[in-house]
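pls design
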């Protein structure tokens, strides 16, 4: 790498007046989001993945990673990587307690794996290189897990993830529980963005800003579509199951004129639903929200992405529209009611911090790297715990930008934010959480499954450039 690269990196890091013209790099703005040029496109439903097994307690599916093409907005056709030919991949539907068997085939020209983000499973099924060899081009692997939790989960590669996910490899797994909140209409929203070159190819250039912030796209996507329309019912209680599969972009969602009630998150429903004006969804996180659609039959509600400051003046960006919810021709006369309380979650006990995890960044050689306890992936000593232990982690963000912290294999609960205890009543099971710049989160988890597990930043460019560690349950 050239010396000039480092100079520009330092300039982006500082995000202050630095003598480079605005044309040379984007201060605060990052990649400009292009308003969609194509007409509205229905994106109400994801393609279901057929269950090949007649046993009602077994979901058995065939999943193939393969090359394909897709047209985004008005761009020329884009070569993409797909699960079963689509981006997003198909949705897998199951019930809690089901066994899920996935016959996976890798028809890509390079090795891959499938990670089941948020699913509590055996470490050997988690799709990480700590426990599994890469599945070579033309290779197969049988994933099998018993689904312990109801919630919205997602799957994606855990090898060269910054490239493989960006090229289109992601899909969702919806696991239904016995006590789901009733809604008039429920939709899954897979949010993403994609950075396309003029010829339609996915940009593979990792410029300094993309390295720093995670690669952000110039087109916003909902269920794989720009200018998406998703059907709802006027006057009805809408339940949105939201996941972000973006490499780096944080979605800060707002539906003008509506408050959103969060009824669930990564690990399922929360005991005490709460209202928000904006819903921040970082890469990898899931939120389950409800609201009554105050819209006339045939009308539309815009879902906006509001500016959010996650570092380097990203909070100065313009608001953009992600999609619109389109009401059908009839009106729901009596909408279902948002639950005020739901099933309790066992709150894990507070205790002193066992493992501090300090997140930071530094230039190593000529390259910007992202560090955990001052080291990069491969050099970070593993965290070691005994099977069944409840242990406390503290994630301390020493850097000037937010990092979404993701733990594989286990849910954690937030005990304290910056030393201030989180009330027991707001307990939630999380696997991915924003640790804001210069802030710290005290987390607790029960490590009840043996094996070697990963924890990392879910900005994929950060994970692939150092910010990933290993946790060993013995
Ligand atoms: Cu990060």
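designed seq:
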């Amino acid at each position: 790498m050239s010396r000039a690269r480092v100079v520009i990196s330092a300039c982006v890091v500082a995000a202050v007046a630095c003598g480079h013209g605005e044309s040379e790099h984007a201060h605060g703005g990052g990649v400009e989001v292009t308003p969609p040029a194509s007409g509205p496109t229905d994106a109400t439903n994801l393609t279901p993945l057929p269950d090949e097994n007649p046993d009602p307690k077994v979901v058995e599916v065939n999943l193939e990673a393969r090359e394909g093409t897709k047209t985004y907005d008005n761009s020329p056709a884009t070569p993409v990587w797909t699960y079963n030919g689509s981006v997003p991949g198909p949705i897998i539907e199951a019930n809690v307690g089901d066994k899920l068997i996935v016959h996976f085939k890798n028809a890509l020209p390079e090795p891959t794996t499938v990670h089941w983000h948020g699913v509590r499973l055996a470490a050997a099924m988690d799709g990480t290189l700590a426990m599994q060899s890469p599945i070579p081009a033309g290779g197969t692997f049988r994933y099998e897990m018993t689904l312990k939790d109801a919630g919205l989960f997602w799957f994606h590669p855990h090898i060269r993830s910054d490239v493989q996910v960006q090229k289109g490899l992601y899909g969702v797994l919806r696991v239904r529980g016995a006590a789901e909140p009733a809604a008039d209409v429920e939709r899954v929203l897979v949010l993403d963005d994609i950075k396309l070159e003029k010829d339609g190819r996915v940009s593979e250039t990792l410029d300094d800003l993309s390295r720093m912030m995670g690669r952000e796209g110039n087109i916003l996507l909902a269920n794989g579509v720009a200018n998406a329309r998703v059907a709802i019912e006027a006057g009805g209680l809408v339940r949105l199951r939201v996941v972000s599969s973006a490499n780096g972009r944080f979605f800060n969602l707002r539906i003008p004129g509506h408050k959103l009630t969060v009824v669930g998150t990564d690990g399922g429903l929360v005991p005490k639903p709460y209202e928000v004006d904006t819903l921040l969804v970082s890469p990898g996180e899931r939120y389950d929200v409800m609201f009554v659609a105050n819209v006339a039959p045939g009308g539309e509600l815009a879902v906006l992405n509001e500016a959010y400051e996650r570092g380097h003046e990203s909070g100065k960006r313009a608001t953009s529209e992600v999609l619109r919810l389109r009401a059908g021709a009839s009106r729901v006369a009596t909408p279902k009611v948002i639950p005020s309380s739901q099933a309790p979650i066992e709150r894990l006990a507070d205790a002193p911090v066992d493992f501090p995890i300090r997140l930071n960044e530094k230039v190593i050689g000529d390259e910007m790297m992202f560090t955990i306890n001052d080291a990069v992936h491969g050099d970070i000593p593993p965290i070691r715990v005994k099977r069944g232990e409840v242990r406390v982690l503290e994630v301390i963000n020493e850097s000037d930008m937010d990092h979404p912290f993701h733990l594989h294999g286990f849910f954690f609960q937030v005990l304290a934010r910056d030393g201030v205890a989180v009330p027991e009543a707001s307990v939630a099971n999380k696997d991915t959480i924003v640790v804001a710049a210069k802030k710290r989160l005290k987390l607790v988890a029960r490590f009840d499954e043996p094996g070697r597990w990963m924890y990392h930043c879910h900005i994929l460019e950060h994970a692939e450039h150092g910010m990933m560690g290993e946790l060993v349950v013995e």
